[in-house]
Amino acid sequence: MLAERNLSALRYPRSFLGLLVAAFLLVALPLIGTLLYSAWHTERLTEQSRSAVSGASAAARAGRSLVSRVGSIERLALQLAVLPDAQLRADFARAHESFRQLSDQLGLLALKEEPLAAFTRAIEREQALYDYVTRPPRGAPDLRTVRAMAAALVEDAYQVLAVSYFAADREVERLGASADEVHRRLIVMVLIATALALAAALALTRLIAQPIAELDSAIRQLGSADFTRAIRVSGPEDLQSLGERLDWLRQRLTELEAQKNRFLRHLSHDLKTPLAALREGTELLNDQVAGPLAPPQRQVVAILRDNSVKLQRLIEDLLDYQRALHAASGLQIGVVSLDGLLRQCVRSHQLAAQAKTQRLVLETGSIAVRADATKLRSVIDNLLGNAVKFTPAGGEIRVLASQQGTAATIDFLDSGPGVPPEEREAIFEAFFRGRAGAFGRAEGTGLGLAIAREFTEAHGGRIEVVAGAPRSQGAHFRVTLPLRPVLPLAEAA
Asked: Which of 6, 160, 163, 493 is the most buried (most CB within 10 A)?
């Protein structure tokens, strides 16, 4: 027991709520991991996009500014080559200084290899042009040379701008490729995470369902009056504790069942022992072993003898009723041919009906029900026996069986005195025998119909007295049985 508890403690949390929380977390873990992976890659893509957009924008602005500055320098250089003027020289120096400041700022940008090479060439050519215009090697600067140098500078500036745009487009393509790759990875991860989550859910469902199934089996076991097997429930401590309480209940029910059986055995023994002596004495008197009896004495002995037999039958019926109640809680369900069972029962009562010149009629089709054949036969025998008992000589008894939807009905009609309206419910109670009718009070203990009702209701059916029965002036009993019984929890398969 201790080893089982330790093993269960390793497998299960301390409470059922903890088990549910742990199961939820385990099922959600793959999905949470996928979500975190997706968030991380999305953040990376966002950061890369922000950096790429910022770099591309800065490179484009640098290219446009560079083109603008180079245009001013080209114009001033050509003017100085044609007309040397102090004011033009000062403007050219300011343009050169502005270009240097712009180049210093652009040098701080993380430009790619191609725009950086073009940018470096532009700086070198601008410096060469400035030196040639301001300090020509021989006299005034040559206009064609200035024009060629300026054209090369402008070409480099436009190349920087074009390469910047091209680099921006290429960066966008690279980011698109990265996004597609991340998308494919996320799809694969979602599929894997979903499969893992489903597998974990199935495994945990079995783990959670096991103690619940054990509890269900234990309740069914108690409901079917099976007190022989000990109840053990695995799982969290609260469910184990519940299983221990059920096992305690099983032990208490076992003790109560033993006490009841012991009481019935003692009662049977205590009643049957003096009753056997009484019957033996009356038999001896009836056989005149102790001497001849006068007619009045023989009449008294006959009364004693009949009542002792009746008392013995009452005791046996009481014990049979207790056994019937116990049997009603445990049905042995199987497929029963209802028409075949009815024919067998009618045959067994045929001789008794013929002895009273009664006509016994059976009308049935082919009907199959799921029921306990033994207990269903007991119901039919009780109702047929009552019909034969209460129907007068020369009367008629009809047994009609039919199927209506998902239920089968068996009607028992006789031409006897019938059942008074005020007794139609009471006759199904134990030991109720009814008032004396036209044929006097019937002999019996009043347990037959009570047992029939117990067995019928155990099948999920119903037994009743039908008022105003057609085609008959006597009693009309109807038994309704589901074709597939909806049994109580304790008996359900």
From this structure: 160
